[in-house]
Automatic annotation (TrEMBL):
Gene3D superfamilies recorded: P-loop containing nucleotide triphosphate hydrolases (3.40.50.300)
TM annotation in the entry: none
Positions in coiled-coil regions: none
Organism: Shinella granuli
PANTHER family: COBQ_COBB_MIND_PARA NUCLEOTIDE BINDING DOMAIN-CONTAINING PROTEIN, P-LOOP CONTAINING NUCLEOSIDE TRIPHOSPHATE HYDROLASE
Domain of life: Bacteria
Name of the protein this chain belongs to: Chromosome partitioning protein
InterPro entries named in the record: DNA_Partitioning_ATPase (IPR050678), P-loop_NTPase (IPR027417), VirC1 (IPR009744)
Amino acid sequence: MPVITFANAKGGAGKTTAALILATELASRGHRITILDADPQRWISHWHEVSGRQRNIAVISEVSMASLQCHIRENRQTTDYFIIDLAGARDALVATAIGLSDHVMIPVQGCAMDARGAAHILELLKQLDEKAGIRINHSVVLTRMNSLVTTRAMSAIKALLAARGVAVLDTPIGERTAFRDIFDCGGTLYTMDAARVSNLDKACENARLFADEVLRLLPVRKRIATERGFFRTLQRAA
């Protein structure tokens, strides 16, 4: 049961949208998903309330640094993938979630502010590696990309991050009406009415490609660390 965390120290980078798209896509394939909504805005919790009971998806809204690991431990037998949506911050909860992750997704819209927020997360990952010997796989995912500028933006950002050894997903999250409407309407992309949502088929294809690429990045077996060693690591990396 891999843990996938979406993190950027700046708010509004598209973390919540990317996390929900991945969660609902994986659930549609029959995987059991537990979303840990650690964003104070609680958009995913709101989506869950609007949606009602969703097959293969559970949402936990009350998430703190103290409870995070307990939630993972208590739900591991009924979960295939944990997805954590974090606040746009760099604090103890963010550090804890990242330390417990199998892969960290860093959403970036392609603007300077998002890049700086991503840099904070990359620095935290570096500290965990250098100070504590915990190396966590991570990737940047471009979000809210307009199809007219995707190629140019992706080339520029990939070149910049490649120089720092940071991978960028080949599949960006496009600027789609369906990705916005899902938070108001509830449900999933597959329960939306194509007659009312423009380019719904393209949004579904985007979600499928994104999920496929994320799954290819996940380890075959979950990284194992003891609780005592992990929290000692956080103290050393802080």
